[in-house]
Specification:
2 helices, 112 residues, alpha+beta, five-stranded antiparallel β-sheet, 19% strand
């Protein structure tokens, strides 16, 4: 997908909704260990979660969020809304915790 320099994350989410049929309120975007959402209960505001801190803000430009297509951006569809900390995997870690574990493991291991 191509966007101009003034495109916002909401524009990307609208395009994904049109092309993939996922409602904006149910989209979960993962990019560089951050989760981006625009849930209905936040009334159109952008929610950014990095595994430790949840920030609610106005829609932001893709360039301000450093989303430039250089790295993969993953879009998923939220199935249910849970009012608890989001955990993934067999070990019940957040995305941030799992990434930190992988990095720590990679630093401590050698492929000799």
């Amino acid at each position: 997908m191509a966007f101009d320099g003034d495109a916002k994350l909401g524009d990307l989410m609208k395009k994904l909704s049109t092309e993939q049929g996922i409602e904006i309120a149910k989209q979960v975007l993962l990019y560089k260990c951050k989760e981006f959402r625009m849930p209905a209960y936040e009334k159109g505001k952008l929610v950014i979660y990095d595994g430790q801190q949840r920030v609610v803000t106005e829609d932001q430009r893709l360039t301000d969020l450093k989303i430039d297509g250089a790295e993969p951006l993953v879009c998923g569809e939220l199935q249910d809304e849970w009012l608890e900390e989001v955990k993934w995997g067999a070990f019940g870690q957040t995305l941030y915790e799992a990434t930190q574990e992988i990095r720590a493991f990679a630093r401590g291991s050698s492929l000799a």
